Amino acid sequence: GAVGVAEEGAAPGSGAGGAYDAGTKVERLRQLLEKHSLSAYIVPTDDPHLCEMPPAAFRRRAYISGFTGSAGTALVTTESATIPAENGDAGAEAGSSSPTGADGHALLWTDGRYFLQAETELSGTPWSLMRAGMPDVPEPITWLSENLKPGSRVGIDPMVFTVQTARQFCEQLSSVQCSLIPVERNLVDAVWEEDARPDFPKGEVRVHPLKYAGVSVEEKLEGVRQDLREEDCDALLVNTLDEVCWLLNVRGADIENSPVVVAYVLVTLESCVLFVDSSKLGEEVSAHLEAAGVSVREYGDLKEGLRALCEDGARIWVDPNQCTSGLYDAMCKSIRDAGEGAGDEGPGVLRLSGGEDGAVFLYNPETGSIRREGEDDGKDGKEIALQDASGNLVEKKSPISMAKAQKNKAEIEGLVEAHLRDGVALAQFLEWLEVAILGRGETPTEFEISEKLLEFRSHQDGFIEPSFPTIAGEGENGAIIHYRPEEESCNTLTQSSMLLLDSGGQFDCGTTDVTRTVHFGEPTEFQRRCYTRVLKGHIALSTLVFPEGIPGFMVDSFARSSLWRGGLDYRHGTGHGVGAGLNVHEGPCGISARYTNTTGIEKGMVLSNEPGYYEDGSFGIRIENLVWVSKADTEREFGEKEYLRFNDLTMVPIQKKLMVTEMLSLEELEWIDTYHAKVWEAIGPRVPEGSTTKDWLREATSPL
User: Fold this and answer.
1) If we measure between CA atoms, which residue out of 682, 417, 704, 659 comes closest to residue 519?
2) Distance between CA 118 and CA 126 in Å, rounded?
């Protein structure tokens, strides 16, 4: 998919689910803030594993705010938390909507993809929409810094804030004499558990066969251990779910559209432990793990496992952009406690008496910490530990991230097979849709065609589920980048419709993601010219040859150049990484104008190529293929570097009637004909001879 998906609206306990109305939820949360002596509480989208789409039980921001988009941050304050503004309302920023009540602020930040959706979902509630990215709309941390009274305590669940994010919040809050306070139990959960919170996910885990994984668990673990030795580390904490699954060659069913299992892994030089709800593991998976030397402990035992390593003085590799501040805080305190001794009186620690109650304080000259004897820093109300003085927490990007991104031969072959199956399903679907609308005069809805596409995909071998909710946007809905049709309110398709269709599948052998834009009648000249500019950008990226290791932002302009020449552009990235039978959006590499992502493009990476154009209120265009990166055949290799190219995985015809052939160069025309010849050669043999789909495919791939 392009750049974001909407969650299931009104699922039980998610967004509009449950019995409590929006006002009741906010009021109950405020009561908990008062109980914990907090001025504000932040509810991000993130869960403990930083999932793009968390499991239903972790969709706390959606529950508390009622906004169900995939990106956003909620913030609730108490009545007396903020400095009275001159205009009487500290929340009335430019770009915010809905008046803030006198009881405090309830603010929801989201980006431009979701302004319309958020306005609708927050209407008539205590929530104000903060339009992120608009002029004069501060980020949540800036808003807190500018509006909270000095001495305010801002609460977070440290298990859903990364170390890096928590540090940024800490630094900015402390500059205005405020503090970031970890609250051990998530306060939204305390409200939600009275209000039909979904159960913790119980999806069954399956083995990902070696024929698709390509590398055994033992080999992958040896690779990680080699990385540990090179960095003089003893252990690696694996926090994100796709890294857990990739490392152990397993797949799960805990999150819709993503075949992952909620779990952690701790790899040491001698052992590997999977922390997971063991009821999800059947005999085959248990035997698979045992054979690879992987032991299993319950999901909730992770902190105990980390504590034991810290007490042994192990040097632990953590990625500060993946590790949560809650785990980091626990490790810092375990390291400190081990250094101070079991009785808090380790070498160098001084016992100081003082205070009217005869209390004894412990001072550690090495760390500068001072605390009351017997006090447990793990309880609420203490500031979070985000710096390790011992040097035993080694901060570095996860070594699994790049290993997972660079697919091996078996993973590429699995992805090729997945796209061949997907190509057959798309050919059958597009032929059915054309016949239904043009042949039988039917007017199916966007929702109905999404269901029909799922039906065609489900007939393919090894199909498991969609890789994201289908985006089927007719007419003006095609211009809404994250659009998802709802059964009750979506558009119908007619003989004058233009349709943007972005969809994908999870197969046993790989993951797909494809977008095609089609018109069923006579497109306007402007539509055809826009489409052709998008196509030219797609071809420019597809045919590019580039040196290994250059970051995605250096090639992004090639996809936009033709649009720019017409004074057009699009407001999303050009390409995202894709997993091999894993998440449809995968880091660390991407292609966009964001120059902050400096990860280089390397052989074996799988990315999307998806330029587009969106005419608000009228139509949308996107042409998306998945591509894999291989060595290019060049005359020279300057600088002793390899030069790379993209290879198409997606095998689906690109509609010819939307093309203005006069705008295409000879090379571009040849690319289209060559691509269509490949589609016919790859998909044709899989479509039954004499079928109407075969005839449709032959025509759709015939040369220009």
Assistant:
1) 659
2) 13
pTM of the model as a whole: 0.89
Is residue 626 within 8 Å of 643, Cβ to Cβ? no
Residues in CB range of 699: below 8 A, 6 or more apart = none
Alpha-carbon distance of 206 to 192, in angstroms, equals 31
- pLDDT tens-digit readout, 515-573: 999 999 999 999 999 999 999 999 999 999 999 999 999 999 999 999 999 999 998 89
**DSSP of 444-501, one letter per residue?**
-BHHHHHHHHHHHHHTSTTEEEESS--EEEEGGGGGSTT----TTT--B--TT-EEEE
Pairing of strands 153-156, 179-182: parallel
Return phi, psi of residue 90, to 5°: -65, -15
Of 220, 279, 225, the closest CA to residue 249 belongs to: 220
Provide the Cα torsion 682, 686, 689, 693; round to 10°. Answer: -80
Q: Tell me the pairing of strands 250-251 and 206-207.
A: antiparallel
Bridge partners of 44, per DSSP, are 73
Confirm if 681 and 651 have CB atoms less than 8 A apart.
no
Question: How crowded is the C-beta side of 487, counted as CA atoms within 13 Å?
Answer: 4
Nearest Cα residue to 60 out of 203, 227, 197: 197
Tell me phi and psi for residue 342, to 5 degrees.
Answer: -60, -30
Gyration radius of the chain over CA positions: 27
Query: Quick check: helix, strand or coil at residue 226?
Result: helix
Q: 């529950």: which residue's tokens?
A: 63
Cβ contact 685:653 at 8 Å: no
Note the pLDDT tens digit of each residue in 312-370: 999 999 999 999 999 999 999 999 988 865 444 445 566 665 544 555 555 566 555 55
Best CA proximity match to 209, nearest among 487, 507, 491 = 507
Spatial separation of the C-alpha atoms in residues 114 and 309, rounded to whole Å: 43
Contact assessment for residue 82 and residue 148, using Cβ atoms and an 8 Å cutoff: yes
Q: Residue 480: what residue type?
A: I
CA atoms within 13 A on the CB side of 567: 1
Residues 6+ apart with CB under 8 A from 373: 344, 351, 359, 360, 361, 362
Determine contact, residues 277/203, Cβ cutoff 8 Å.
no
How remote is the C-alpha of 26 from its chain's centroid? 27
Provide the H-helix boundaries in 214-282: 217-230, 241-248
